[in-house]
Write a structure and sequence with these properties.
There is one protein chain. Helices cover 14% and strands 12% of the residues. With 98 residues, it is α+β, with helices and mostly antiparallel strands. The chain has a single domain, classed as Ubiquitin-like (UB roll), CATH 3.10.20. The chain has a three-stranded antiparallel sheet. The longest helix has 7 residues, at 12-18.
Length: 98
């Protein structure tokens, strides 16, 4: 799959955008905001470990949960199913299409 500078290569954000799934990312996937905040419902074991920068940024996210990740930072590292939910408050919070 081609990488298009959407966060880290093969991140949830990169994969979503490459498949036509809108996931807001006001900072361009640079771990400088929380607009790509998602809740990982299944497959967390298939994702990269959270680093300190992502954890610090997530502290500012609304409705933070134990399964919260930033789509631009969570990289798919193993084959398998990964299911995420985009929080309702986050959908259309910031949209680069408007």
């Amino acid at each position: 799959m081609p990488y298009k500078d959407h966060g880290k290569e093969e991140s949830l954000l990169d994969v979503a955008l490459n498949h036509g799934i809108t996931l807001d990312h006001a900072c361009g996937g640079n771990c400088a905001c929380t607009t790509c905040h998602v809740w990982v419902k299944e497959g967390a074991e298939n994702l990269s470990a959270m680093d300190d920068d992502e954890a610090d940024r997530l502290d500012m996210a609304a409705d933070l949960q134990l399964n919260s990740r930033l789509g631009c930072q969570a990289v798919i590292t193993k084959p398998g199913k990964v299911v995420v939910e985009i929080p309702a408050w986050n959908r259309n919070y910031v949209s680069e299409e408007h």
